[in-house]
Amino acid sequence: MSKVLVIAEHDGSNLNGSTARAVSCASDLGLDAVDVVVLAADGSAVAEQAAKITGVSTVLLVQNAANENAVAAFLAPQIEALAVDYSHVLAPSTTFGKDLIPRVAAHLGRPQISDIMRVESATVFDRPVYAGNAVVTVEAPEGLVIGTVRTASYKAASNDGSASVETRSVDVALPSHTRFVGLESGGGGDRPDLQAAVKVVSGGRGVGSEENFKVIYSLADKLGAGVGASRAAVDAGFIPNDHQVGQTGKIIAPDLYMAFGISGAIQHLAGIKDAGTIVAVNKDADAPIFEVADYGLVADLFEVIEELEKAL
Amino acid sequence: MKILVGVKRVVDFNVRIQVKPDGSGVATDGVKMSMNPFDEIAVEEALRIKEAGNAEEVIVATIGPKACQEQLRTALAMGADRAIHVLTDEEIQPLTGARILKALADKESPKIVMLGKQAIDDDNNQTAQMLGALSHWPQATFASKVKIDGDTATVTREVDAGLETLSVDLPAVISADLRLNEPRYVKLPDIMKAKRKPLEVIEIADLGVEVAPAVKVLKTVAPAKREAGIKVESVTELVTALKEKGLI
Ligand SMILES: Cc1cc2nc3c(=O)[nH]c(=O)nc-3n(C[C@H](O)[C@H](O)[C@H](O)COP(=O)(O)OP(=O)(O)OC[C@H]3O[C@@H](n4cnc5c(N)ncnc54)[C@H](O)[C@@H]3O)c2cc1C
Ligand SMILES: Cc1cc2nc3c(=O)[nH]c(=O)nc-3n(C[C@H](O)[C@H](O)[C@H](O)COP(=O)(O)OP(=O)(O)OC[C@H]3O[C@@H](n4cnc5c(N)ncnc54)[C@H](O)[C@@H]3O)c2cc1C
Q1: What is the least distance, in Å, from the CA of A54 to any CA of chain B?
Q2: Rounded (5°) CA angle A237-A199-B226
Q3: Full-model pTM
């Protein structure tokens, strides 16, 4: 029997939306079963959410005080122990999955397929390289397949499943060389999570300052949108790092992406290739962002936002 | 204490790459090559740790063909003390690369191996974590701040939820994210000096590393192009268009 194990991403109480996207990819493999594992300190609430994802057969719940925070050095040995029952192991290609999965793969002596964007067969996958400027079709060697899923390429599986939840105890020695100190969140407030948001309003260096970014937040709130940014805006301290969109930030696929004062460097565009509709506002008519924008407006971003706020 | 830094030669980040029409890969002939930007940051951080008195020697290493020595010389010009070139004309995938770096680490016993979080050509984001696993060392990936205190490092990491801090015992693997530092500019006299710094060439076969099972690249294609859009003349026109699509 060939089965796939999907590693759930969560914060202890809520399942992250990237998990249901990874399940969509897992379902495309066409195997006998899709299982999800929740590694947590106290994870029954998260396991219940995972059990509702359509297409999931069994949710494995592994509880251990060491799983309070997602530390790769602790999670990896537990996943390695569970992997013996599976032909495939997948996790979302978020910073959680990117940090964790190579550690599992290396220990098991397996190569890893990063950022799966399409399943061609149970061993053949498409993945982006060069910031998405080329797509390679790769074949995994015989044996356990380990990979991460480019979540922007998949819609979340729906939510009408009823998988069983099985508690598992995994008896492996965990290292003592790593200590979790803390997590400081960027403080997006009540705004939608960037990776799940249907609409995203994004600002670049052209916004000019942290103070000016208020107009971006205000427009986002009016639209019920998440807030994104270019690397230049983050580097300049206009906005915290967890808002960065692009090759080395978040890869997103909202229905609507509005870029204000962003030039459109390839590294930024890598993060928005899957957006439904892209709107770009830039005062430079030659800015490369206009090459990908569905609607481009050559104008001052502050004037445009003021008018937009009135029109909405 | 020694720091070992991985340096990879990649297509320069400013190059608009072209996919070969026959699907065999990306055209690299005559294309500008540079040090992976994340590795430049890793070299810079290692130098700063040394300059702060927390390390004695910075060793840079690359795995690849002869031409990679150009990037090693750049790292030496930045201030690294010596370089190791693991010579191969074969394609090296991350797991084998990590095994090679482990063999170097076993030889040199560094307290920190500093790598880039991802190479901007293949974007795998694997090597550092794999090296951590193989060495049974802690890993602190996507670092935006590193503080060394005796035998521990406190590392701030850029994660999707914000900034996470881990404390790890040394030896450890750290991978550099973009905001860790701004690499220094190399000055001409340093380039001259770098030519005289030691650069050891090791044949891959002499390291006794087993090549890992490999992922086979079947074809390379250009990504689906977005349809060209239109320019609107006014906010009113924009709002009308977005309303028609049901987006606002
Ligand atoms: C290895 C690597 C990885 C990278 N990863 C990322 C990444 O993940 N994400 C990312 O975004 N970048 C990334 N970058 C950086 C990228 O190359 C660009 O430097 C960055 O995206 C530029 O940001 P920007 O468009 O905000 O700034 P700029 O390029 O400076 O553009 C600002 C724009 O604002 C416009 N403007 C100014 N004022 C106004 C106004 N009043 N009204 C309207 N328009 C105005 C200007 O015309 C200009 O086009 C990476 C770079 C490297 C080397
Ligand atoms: C012609 C050709 C085609 C290829 N096509 C593909 C392909 O389509 N898909 C694919 O996955 N691989 C391909 N490879 C292999 C590829 O070049 C990479 O070497 C390998 O996949 C490592 O991935 P990465 O650099 O993205 O690793 P990452 O894990 O992203 O690299 C992270 C860090 O590890 C260190 N590091 C990585 N490699 C080296 C090195 N050689 N020397 C020193 N430090 C290093 C650096 O510090 C780097 O910043 C190809 C190679 C060749 C020669």
Answers
A1: 25
A2: 95
A3: 0.92
